[in-house]
Amino acid sequence: MSSGCGIALCYKTERSIDMKHDKKNITAMVTGMVIGAALASEAAAGIVAEPTWQKIYVDGRQVSMTAYNIAGNNYVRLRDIGQQVDFNVYWSDGVQIDTDAPYTGIAPVQEISSQPTDMEIREEMIRRINEVRKKHGVPELAVDQSLMDAAQECSAYLYTRHNNQTECETVAASGYPYGFGSNLTAFTVMDPERIPQKAVANWENSPGHLATMIDPNGDAVGVGVTIANGKAFCYMFAGNPTAHNPYA
């Protein structure tokens, strides 16, 4: 017997398959499942596999399946059982049995999520931040990985107001050696794709946050986003090499 979907299902010759039972009861038969290696070991023991002479029935209807008789037991391919009883059997990092799906013999297609990833949201936030800076005639901010790490860590705290000491200590621990400006906003999420637009708009419409975002002394940026409990918690750290972090 071959590996993968060629594994065999062993059941006593006097039994037939009853589709009237829930397909999950197939697990009772799967208990007798053996890999092709088991057949090899039988052969090594001097036991001969030969085509079965037993009839195989499904719901009282005789079906044709390739089967071999070894020591009084019938061995058939698991995929053949799946096809006759109508549950799916396929190979995907091992033999997969899906009793709730009809037989196809192939792995189901995995749906690709249309929702943006956290990194895509963060990248779009940075793009929008730099658009605001360009509107105000100041240079774009370069992405700094230390600030990105710090901002993401702070967003995971789910703060709704600033905690200056924690922010400063987190930035220092990330390895960024200078001072920085910090923006925070938290809001209910209706559509993850709109998080960057909403976050940057909130900051742009707040004089203090806008001043931080367009500070001409800033030269680096890091942002973080955590979505929890139906809300988005967004941070922006704008690095300023002319400033000092009191907790560094």
Keywords:
single chain; 248 residues; alpha+beta; five-stranded antiparallel sheet; four-stranded mixed sheet; 32% helix
Separation, N- and C-terminal Cα atoms: 66 Å
Helicity level: 25-40%
Lateral arrangement of strands in the main beta sheet:
2-1-7-6-3
- Mean pLDDT, to the nearest integer, reads 81
For the biggest sheet, the summary is: 5 strands, antiparallel
Oligomer: single chain
What is the N-to-C order of secondary-structure elements (H for helix, E for strand)? EHEHEEEEEHEEHEHHEHHEE
Proportion of residues in β-strands: 25-35%
Based on CA atoms alone, the radius of gyration comes out at: 31 Å
State the helix count.
Answer: 8
User: What is the SS-derived class?
Assistant: alpha+beta
| Count of DSSP strands | 13
Description:
By secondary structure, this protein is an alpha+beta fold. The protein has helices at 26-30, 36-44, 78-85, 118-135, 145-155, 164-174, 195-204, 207-213; strands at residues 8-12, 33-34, 50-51, 56-58, 61-63, 67-70, 73-77, 88-91, 95-98, 142-143, 179-188, 220-228, 231-240. The strands form four sheets. The protein has a five-stranded antiparallel β-sheet with strand order 2-1-7-6-3. Strands 10-12-13-11 form a four-stranded mixed β-sheet. A two-stranded antiparallel sheet has the order 4-5. A hairpin with a 2-residue loop joins strand 4 and strand 5 (61-63). Helix 4 (118-135) runs parallel beside helix 7 and helix 5 (145-155) packs antiparallel against helix 6. The radius of gyration is 31 Å and the shape is elongated. Residues 1-15 and 27-44 have low confidence and may be disordered.
